[in-house]
Design brief:
There is one protein chain. A hairpin with a 4-residue loop joins strand 1 and strand 2. This protein is mainly α. The termini are far apart. The protein has one domain. A two-stranded antiparallel sheet has the order 1-2. It has five helices and two strands, in the order H-H-E-E-H-H-H.
Length: 161
Amino acid sequence: MTEQDYLLAWAAYAIAALGCLLVWCRMTGWMWRWLREPLRVLVAVLLLTPTIVDPAKELFAPAIAITALDLLFKVGNNAWRAVADLAIYGAIAFAVWLAFCALRWPVERWWQARRAPAAAAVAEEDEPTLRELMSRDERYDEADTRMGAQGERRLRIEPRL
C-alpha cells in the first residue's frame, strides 16, 4: 500500500465516519439532552479514534475496526492496544464534555434568569384587558379560558395599571 492509497483510505473512512455521526445525531435528536450528549460523545470516540497498527512504519487504523477484526478473526495482538486507545480517548473526551457542561450550566441559569422577566412581560402584554373581557359576550367561550404559566386555570382577572 502506497502512501497515496493510505491517505485515500483514511479520507474515505473520515467521510463515512462523519456520515455515520450525522445519522447518529439525527437518531438521538429526540432524547433528553443529558442522555443525548454522552451518547454522541461515545459514538464520536468510537468512530474517530485511531490506533497504531505497525509501529515501525507508523501506520494507523480506526481502533474500532482493529478491535473488531482482531476479535472476529483472532489474527493479531493489536486488540488490547486498540481497546486501550479507545479507553484513553474516551476518558479524555468525557472529561472535556464534563468541563463544557460545568461551564455551560451556570451560564444557562444566568441566561434563563435574565430572560424570565422579559418573557413574563411579553406574556402579560398578550393578555386581554379587563375592558376587552367585559365587552365580550357573557357566555362561556373556549377561547376565553385563561391558563396560568403552570397550566392551572386562572379565573381571577387582574386589571393592569
